[in-house]
Amino acid sequence: MSPRRTPTTRYCFTACDLRLSMALWHCQDQHYIEPPPNPSRELLGYYCCLVGCQSLSLSDLDDAFFLPRQRSTSSFLEEISTRNVLVAGSSNSGDILRELASEVGFEVDEEGASVIDHLNYDVNDLGKHTLIVADSANMIDSPVITGPRNVPPLLYQGTGIVADKENPLVLQILTAESSAYSYVPDEPIKEYPHAVGKNTLLIAALQARNNARVVFSGSLYFFSDEAFTSPVQKALGGKKYDISGNQQVATSLSQWVFKEHGVLRVKSVSHSKVGEKAPPQAYTIMDNAVLLGQSLLETSSLFCNKLGGEGGILLPVVYTIEIEILDKGKWVPYNADDVQLEFVRIDPFVRTTLKRKPGGKYEAHFKIPDVYGVFQFKVDYSRIGYTRLFSTTQV
């Protein structure tokens, strides 16, 4: 059993559209799928969608999704607030989906609205220019989320999403072209569209502060067998591709949202003077500090004080953190050159980049400040696509 799963943890996946068999097979292979109790019933009473969530039993899904009037959306969100969710809607999505989206920071266009692009639509479009071709260059530049960007163009047919760009938790996974907008195709435009140009999100994501992940797509078609296997060509003289990039991107997205990718952990942390293994009772001023390997569960009740060494000799001090990443179900050393350490007493007195060592270890050397107080060694590592890494050790 892989480290990310425990006997009490299950991944549930429910769907009610048999045209999604390829997406479902992938998720079944990865153990996040269970068939719904009644595939013919319309999920949430309004739309067909995919929803996967960690540690939510099938009976809970039945209560939360199939009986929406008996339980509020906020109640459902509270239940899955520590889990991982994949949601896909369509142009026919109802109020429940929009309410669900708004609770996680997205706004979905009104029922019947579609993303329209009169310049970037597929040759197989039926005349409404709603089967749009999205270039892979419009994806977020984060291979850990979407995989490599050098994939064929993507097919999208669905509604538009907007999100607050100032929200640091929201990730714009896939945006439309500047010529796109979201509106009801058969109606004349009498007011400003809900989403226009690059502000039109096709797929959005959110990673909460507790590292729970949500992926929200305005297109169920994006995950369909038809989209996975169809050739792609822009109607206005575009290059023809034998197959779309939908399956590659959808696979990477599902692996990310269900924490196959981008999961970090701290294996060990420690600090001591150079040449010693245990942390001292107190660090003296102007000691040199470095990180080595002490359990995160251990904390030191040490105080930085003005104890000078004998004859004022500067005593060398040391500090190291060991970081791992989940790779194919196994924890392996994580390698990066941008991990920083702060030595904090309310505000940072020292901020330095940790030097990478073999085996996923990172080390830093610095002088203890000439200040009384209780300090913390703090590593707060937050990068797009990765779980937030936060470690503090009090001294």
Describe this structure in words.
The chain has helices at residues 21-29, 58-66, 73-79, 95-103, 143-146, 225-229, 246-257; strands at residues 11-14, 51-54, 85-88, 106-108, 114-117, 132-134, 154-156, 161-163, 170-175, 180-183, 195-196, 201-207, 213-217, 264-273, 288-289, 291-294, 317-327, 330-333, 340-345, 347-353, 355-357, 361-363, 366-367, 376-381, 389-394. Mean pLDDT is 75; it is low at 1-21, 31-71 and 291-315. It is 14% helix and 29% strand. The chain has 2 domains: 11-257; 264-394, Macroglobulin (MG2) domain (Immunoglobulin-like, Sandwich), CATH 2.60.40. With 395 residues, the protein is an alpha+beta fold. It is built from 7 helices and 25 strands. InterPro entries: DDOST_48_kDa_subunit, OST48_MD, OST48_N. Pathway: Protein modification; protein glycosylation.
What descriptive keywords fit this protein?
395 residues, alpha+beta, Immunoglobulin-like, 2 domains, 25 strands, elongated, disordered N terminus, endoplasmic reticulum
How much strand? 25-35%
| Structural class computed from helices and strand pairing | alpha+beta
Say how many strands there are.
25
Per DSSP, the total helix count is 7
Q: How many structural domains does the protein architecture include?
A: 2
Q: Low-confidence parts lasting 5 or more residues at pLDDT below 50?
A: 1-21, 31-71, 291-315
Based on CA atoms alone, the radius of gyration comes out at 25 Å
Please state the average pLDDT score. Answer: 75
Largest sheet: 6 strands, antiparallel
Distance between the termini: 37 Å
Helix content: 10-25%
The outline comes out as elongated
